[in-house]
Amino acid sequence: MKEEEPIRILITGGTIDKEYDPLTGELMFAKSHLSNILSQVRCKARFALEEVMFKDSLQMRSSDREEILKRCVDCQENKIIVTHGTDTMVETGLVLGSHVKGKAIVLVGAMIPYAFGTSDALFNLGCAFAAVQALRHGIYITMNGKIFFWDNVRKNKESGEFERLKP
User: pTM of whole model > 0.85?
Assistant: First the structure.
């Protein structure tokens, strides 16, 4: 039997890793919760965590997307999950989709921080793990139990959900 391919997880920030700061009343980054999440759900897939940045996706610039692209291209794994803020996840998918070949990359995030307890982070991350192992090479976004091609998705700002551009 063929050995299971490892999965590289690139942590870039986004709501999934935000926490509430009781002093300022704002959401902020302290550390990644991905290790705790994967331990909590008893993930048995082989993976390597890599912290790239801790940014709200609205604060990301082209140089940040270029860094994510570089990490995806340079890593030896062919299966990659990128945690990302949902507001500009599609823009990062565009950069990756235009330049990365021969790898399966899934971008994933959450609408509610993991630290809040009622988060969609666990479910979304689980979907990303299943998707990256089952899908062919390409760039995908997975949110709320759905998988989208990078070039056929948008975040509906009114409903807060991701949707296909065309059927």
Answer: yes
Q: What are the tokens at 1?
A: 């039997």
Answer yes or no: is 48 within a domain.
yes
- Interval 63-90: pLDDT, tens: 999 999 999 999 999 999 999 999 999 9
- Report pLDDT digits (tens) over 108-150: 999 999 989 889 999 999 999 999 999 999 999 999 999 999 9
Give the Å distances, CA to CA, from 135 to 15, 41, 96, 102. Answer: 25, 22, 16, 12
121: in domain: yes
In a domain, 156, yes or no: no
The stretches of 8-120 forming alpha helices (DSSP H) are: 34-40, 62-74, 89-99
Domain contains 1: no
